[in-house]
Amino acid sequence: MTIPSKMNAMILTGHGDLDKYEWRTDWPVPTPAADQVLVKVGACGMNNTDVNTRAGWYSKAVTGATDTATEETPDGDDPAWGGAPITFPRIQGADVCGEIVAVGAKVDPARIGERIITDNWLRDSDDLQNKNKTGYYGSELDGGYAQYTVLPSRNALAVHSDLSDAELATFSCSYSTAEGMLERAQVTASDTVLVPGASGGVGGALVQLAKHRGARVIALASPAKHAEVSALGADRVLPRTPDNLSADLKKETITVLADVVGGPFWSTLVDVLERGGRLTTSGAIAGPMVDLDLRTLYLRDLTFTGSTVIDLAVMPNLIRYIEAGDIRPSLAATYPLADLKDAQSAFIAKKHTGNIVVLP
């Protein structure tokens, strides 16, 4: 195929509100380095990292929920996920499904034509296990909010599936985040997992993947979204913030809390964990500042684990689940890439149940 020299792309020009995005129709198509591949983007999913990075929410100077981040001023020293500044202009978008159309000098040309999804964690090729030497695609390297993108060959994972590009673009971030959390908490079939925010992309993935492990799943979501969350496999679905969560869970033994919500309800969630229970967390969309009674932590023998950089086995496992049909995409809506601002507004407002995907 003929590869053009220019492309459409949504460019992030700095930290701030949605006006920091700039639509360009003349952006240079990137050239793959020796160990990279050039991918023609078929679809690209949206995730919280896009919103948080754009707003500078990761800065410790920001204390509010993700939908209010731009009301505070991020510290220039730590506005991105890794605690260090990123460079602008930047093309965001980590969850790409597309086709390899060119390869660098060190990549097998036989890969041209492969359909791929992305492993978003950029690792040191000589030190793959070192979490201190990681970057994130769409943050430290330009991502998929464009017609073409480059990424390391090892991060472009071949996938064989009848699912559409938009459906496959729901997996890379939401499902890898969820699987990383469940792996960190060592969830098994003997567990009962409580999932707040179950109507979101990661929350819905947590429901499916915990069920895939054989666990019992109790989900929290707004009543209007209960049917859709139940369809993902949740054993029970309760209101997002029940008036009396302990009473609602009286006959349940919650061994794992898998949370990406945080915020003012967090301490209530922690209080229902069984003695010896585990919290695994990978987000705080309702706010990062929470109340914790340390006596709850130590007297109840609880274990808290944070989960960001996923283990190496997570994405290959997800590819197997996808190809076997063990998990299904939670695609809520698609938007043209040129309408990314509208898509992100809908994402922040939680207008849809599941993942939002943009199409170039």
From TrEMBL:
<feature type="domain" description="Enoyl reductase (ER)">
    <location>
        <begin position="16"/>
        <end position="358"/>
    </location>
</feature>
<feature type="region of interest" description="Disordered">
    <location>
        <begin position="65"/>
        <end position="84"/>
    </location>
</feature>
<dbReference type="InterPro" id="IPR020843">
    <property type="entry name" value="ER"/>
</dbReference>
<dbReference type="InterPro" id="IPR011032">
    <property type="entry name" value="GroES-like_sf"/>
</dbReference>
<dbReference type="GO" id="GO:0016651">
    <property type="term" value="F:oxidoreductase activity, acting on NAD(P)H"/>
</dbReference>
<dbReference type="GO" id="GO:0070402">
    <property type="term" value="F:NADPH binding"/>
</dbReference>
<dbReference type="InterPro" id="IPR013154">
    <property type="entry name" value="ADH-like_N"/>
</dbReference>
<dbReference type="GO" id="GO:0008270">
    <property type="term" value="F:zinc ion binding"/>
</dbReference>
<dbReference type="InterPro" id="IPR013149">
    <property type="entry name" value="ADH-like_C"/>
</dbReference>
<feature type="compositionally biased region" description="Acidic residues">
    <location>
        <begin position="69"/>
        <end position="78"/>
    </location>
</feature>
<keyword id="KW-0521">NADP</keyword>
<protein>
    <submittedName>
        <fullName>NADPH:quinone reductase</fullName>
    </submittedName>
</protein>
<dbReference type="Pfam" id="PF00107">
    <property type="entry name" value="ADH_zinc_N"/>
</dbReference>
<dbReference type="Pfam" id="PF08240">
    <property type="entry name" value="ADH_N"/>
</dbReference>
<dbReference type="InterPro" id="IPR002364">
    <property type="entry name" value="Quin_OxRdtase/zeta-crystal_CS"/>
</dbReference>
<keyword id="KW-0560">Oxidoreductase</keyword>
<dbReference type="InterPro" id="IPR036291">
    <property type="entry name" value="NAD(P)-bd_dom_sf"/>
</dbReference>
